[in-house]
Amino acid sequence: MPPEDACFTAVQARDPRFDGRFVTAVLTTGIYCRPICPARTPKRVNVRFLPSAAAAEAEGFRACRRCRPDRAVWAAARLGDDLIARALRHLDAANGDELSAERLAAHCGVSVRQLDRRFRESLGTTPARVARSRRLHFAKRLLETTDRSVTEIAFASGFGSLRRFHAAFRETFDASPSELRGTTRARDSGSWIELQLPDPGAFGLESVVAFFAARVIPGLEHCEGARLRRVLRVGDGFAGVEIDVADPASPRLRLHPSAFAQVRTLVDTVVGALGLLAPCHAMPDFAGHRPVRVPGAFDPFEVAVRAILGQQVSVRAATTLAGRLVERAGPRIELPGFDDLDRAFPSAADVLATDLASLGVPARRAAALRALATAVHDGSLGLTPGADPQAARNVLAQLPGLGPWTIEYIAMRALGDPDAFPYSDLVLRKVLAAPGEPPLSAREVATRAEAWRPWRAHACLAIWGAASATAPTHDSR
After folding, report:
1. I want to staple 49 with a disulfide (CB 3.0 to 4.6 A). Which of 7, 167, 295, 463 is the partner?
2. What is the dihedral of CA 63, 114, 408, 93, to 10 degrees?
3. Is 268 left (phi over 0), alpha (psi -120 to 50) or beta?
4. What phi, psi does 476 have (nearest 5°)?
5. Residue 147 catalytic?
6. Which of 208, 238, 260 is the last residue of a domain?
7. Domain that holds residue 35
């Protein structure tokens, strides 16, 4: 957290750079707010500054209904703390009531005591409190935007007990779910669910949507203007999502899951794919370039496959190859409202059952694809939320046909490592060289990038984007 005087100055100025880094707990009202809250600034003696919404709730404060802390991008745990970031991804991917402290610590490779200490240092409270807060705020959003029953919403939000959900909800919001919903709830259209995505602030999502638009695979996804639609694999089924960023300040998400219980998983996937969890406001400029969001993964295995297919070819050629793979191996599906999207990306098992030579790729690349699919299928390679990026790198390095560039690209996008950096990339070597000088060596690029830790992936995307803008023929990954 910033020093308290800096926090109060930020609240007085409603400075968006601090949004998500702390909350202001007002002692006289029992309410906590974001730094950008439009309400009148309280007196300094009447406020405390806490590192997260969960910490404020643990001390009995309730969320402000004007600034909506549930819509903030909570960056406090992501300022370079890989352990906390991975733990949060595990919490989001699991039913929080079933993920014990022991299991969470084991997933993260640390002791329960160490994990608890790091959570208290970073977020001001325990992992269990953080998990409960995130589930409750998600449930609140569903209550306000859908017409589903309270019971459905409780289980979809990750609560295993309806009684526990009601008790926690009243404790946090000083109202029952039915009282909070009242008569103002929106009605979802049939099985459609519409939600507002977290506020991206000054670092919008247009560049991320444009990144995906340049790589669209027909039948799997479609992009028109500021609207991206695609099919996602979720559990044993499939779902359709529609992302609309026409209003930069209020990005919207429409979902068509085959089961309502999948909603939280789908929202977490989309938020991660759009890079919405990145605290861009906390990053420096990179070689004179403003920070940008790193596009994540709608499907980590898909990103890894496309990274291999894209070796030594253009983005357009790689997309064509990926389209052939989807056509030959992707399951056929039918989703209401997605008549033009009838394919899902193939699973590792689907890839292993496919004649990869028919894609028109070199034998060595086909062997790399098969090795990747085998490692994912047998569980030796974890490409799941919360996976340890370094452990995954170690496994990837043992697979044939995967060099440092491909491994770092997979770590950057499929594993969400904000510090991944393909230091051998030719574009980086050219852009970072002095005008008129030959490209830097990979070692020189790595040395230059040390100053950008722990955000080197964002530096890479910022430089790639600037290079593409100044040289339209440039075809970075």
Report:
1. 7
2. -50
3. alpha
4. -75, 165
5. no
6. 260
7. 4-71
Last residue of a domain, one of 393, 415, 437: 415
User: Which member of 33, 67, 108, 280 is catalytic?
Assistant: 33
Q: At residue 463, what is the residue type?
A: I
CB-neighbour burial class of residue 212 (10 A; exposed 0-12, middle 13-18, buried 19+): middle
- CA-CA distance, 34 to 70, in Å (whole number)? 10
User: Both 29 and 58 in a single domain?
Assistant: yes
Give me 205's structure tokens.
């999502």
For 312, residues 6+ apart whose C-beta sits below 8 A from its C-beta are none
pTM: 0.88
Which of 199, 299, 417, 425 does the annotation list as catalytic?
425
- CA pair distance 230, 227, nearest whole angstrom: 10
| Number of Cβ within a 10 Å radius of residue 44 | 11
- The number of folded domains in the chain is 5
The rounded distance, in Å, linking the Cα atoms of 155 and 138 is 11
- Is there a single domain that holds both residue 318 and residue 411? yes
Neighbours of 398 (CB within 10 A): 11
131-160 as b/e: b if 16+ CB within 10 A: bbbbbbbbbbbbbbbbebebeebbbbbbbe
Q: 33 an active-site residue? A: yes
Element (H, E) at 48: strand 47-50
Helix or strand (DSSP H, E) at 129: helix 127-145
Residues 49 and 111 in one domain: no
| Mean pLDDT per 10-residue section of the chain, whose length is 477 residues | 90 87 94 93 95 92 86 55 81 68 87 92 90 90 86 90 92 88 56 80 86 95 93 89 88 84 88 87 86 94 96 93 96 88 96 94 95 96 85 96 95 93 94 93 95 93 83 42
**Shared domain check, 48 and 138:** no
